[in-house]
Write a structure and sequence with these properties.
One of its GO terms (cellular component) is cytoplasm. Residues 256-332 form the DRBM domain. By secondary structure, the chain is an alpha+beta fold. The chain has three domains: 2-171, Ribonuclease III domain (Ribonuclease iii, N-terminal Endonuclease Domain, Chain A, Orthogonal Bundle), CATH 1.10.1520.10; 177-237, Double Stranded RNA Binding Domain, CATH 3.30.160.20; 250-331, Double Stranded RNA Binding Domain, CATH 3.30.160.20. The chain has helices spanning 2-12, 19-25, 37-58, 64-75, 77-87, 99-113, 130-146, 151-162, 168-173, 177-187, 222-237, 250-268, 315-331; strands spanning 192-199, 202-209, 212-219, 274-281, 288-298, 303-308. The strands form two sheets. It has a three-stranded antiparallel beta sheet. It starts with a helix and ends with a helix.
Length: 333
């Protein structure tokens, strides 16, 4: 165990004052001794806090939603698992893994070595075993404790391990495939639906646009199947022309969406949709609006659904956009 601790200290370029912290951080529950689970719990939050602070200071122009998207990809299980592989931390876990888990780690490692950044920031074709992100979080907590709970010192020491930090430019270069697919279909005036089903050990995702089958993909994890199917669909839809004059315009689609949402609430005997301004920006003569719409499903239980639309120059258009997003949420269209 001491050899593993020394090697991890070399990777971190940091010598622990209390090496027992690092020993615990490297001990999986399948082995003997105190496992890293409690440290992992803390490490999850410490990494999130440190990266949140970094993003807040580094990108003052970003709004909360953009900061949230950046944080999500930087602290995701997929991102941290790749950190474990790239830094070789997984080789020093004290464990008695099952052969199945060993095979999963080996398969993921092979897939990651073939990736080129920023490919993989949303996940790849092979799902990341949770133990890989766990080990990064537990080591992070051990370092944080050993540094006297000093967040500044922790970030100074641990940032290099987490690099490359995903930037706004990376997200612009590789937006989330599922979100991008919904965005493109909405701009083209097309209706998108993604269906999933489980067949034995695999989950299969199917993409339909205007009722027409576009793409499918399978994976052992539902989210990854959906992700891969969206990537294929994006490549397929890329050459498609925008809607012709015979198709409804985006504005017409959104106007119908607001009307359709009202009809849905009437049919379900729900209260009328409640629209409100979620965000107002710009000078008085060029204001931009983001509206939200709230649907109360069970009044007595206080159950409701709330979604935001896209930013628009007119309040009416912003409400229509919110209605479109609500229909997607409720109906999957």
């Amino acid at each position: 165990m001491e050899a593993s601790v020394i090697e991890v200290e070399r990777i971190l370029s940091y010598g622990f004052i209390d090496r027992k912290l690092l020993e615990e951080a490297l001990t999986h529950s399948s082995s003997t001794g105190v496992s890293y689970e409690r440290l992992e719990f803390v490490g999850d939050h410490i990494i999130g806090l440190a990266i949140s602070k970094h993003l807040f200071l580094a990108y003052p122009q970003l709004d909360p939603g953009q900061l949230s998207d950046l944080l999500d990809v930087n602290v995701s299980k997929e991102k941290l698992a790749r950190v474990a592989i790239h830094r070789g931390l997984h080789r020093f876990i004290r464990q008695s893994f099952s052969s199945e888990l060993r095979d999963q780690i080996e398969l993921f490692e092979k897939a990651v070595t073939l990736e080129k950044y920023p490919v993989g920031i949303h996940g790849g074709s092979v799902g990341a075993p949770k133990v890989l992100s766990d080990i990064v979080e537990s080591i992070a907590a051990a370092a944080y404790f050993d540094l006297g709970f000093d967040l500044e010192k922790f970030w100074e020491k641990f940032r290099v391990i987490l690099e490359p930090i995903v930037t706004p430019g990376d997200l612009e270069q590789q937006p989330h495939p599922v979100k991008e697919l919904y965005k493109i279909c909405q701009k083209m005036g097309k209706l998108l639906k993604i269906k999933s089903e489980r067949k034995e050990t695999d989950s299969i995702a199917y993409v339909f646009v205007d009722g027409k089958f576009i793409a499918s993909a399978s994976s052992d994890k539902k989210d990854l199947a959906k992700l891969e199917a969206a990537k294929i669909a994006l490549d397929t839809l890329a050459p498609l022309p925008p809607p012709t004059s015979t198709r409804p315009s985006i504005t017409d689609m959104q106007l119908r969406a607001k009307q359709k949402l009202n009809e849905l609430c009437q049919n379900k005997k729900w209260p009328k949709p409640e629209y409100s301004k979620a965000k107002v920006s710009g000078p008085p003569h060029e204001k931009r609006f983001v509206c939200s719409v709230k649907i109360t499903i069970e009044e007595e239980e206080g159950v409701f659904v709330l979604t935001n639309g896209c930013e628009k120059s007119k309040l009416k258009d912003a409400e229509n956009s919110a209605a479109s997003m609500m229909l997607i949420t409720l109906l999957g269209v």
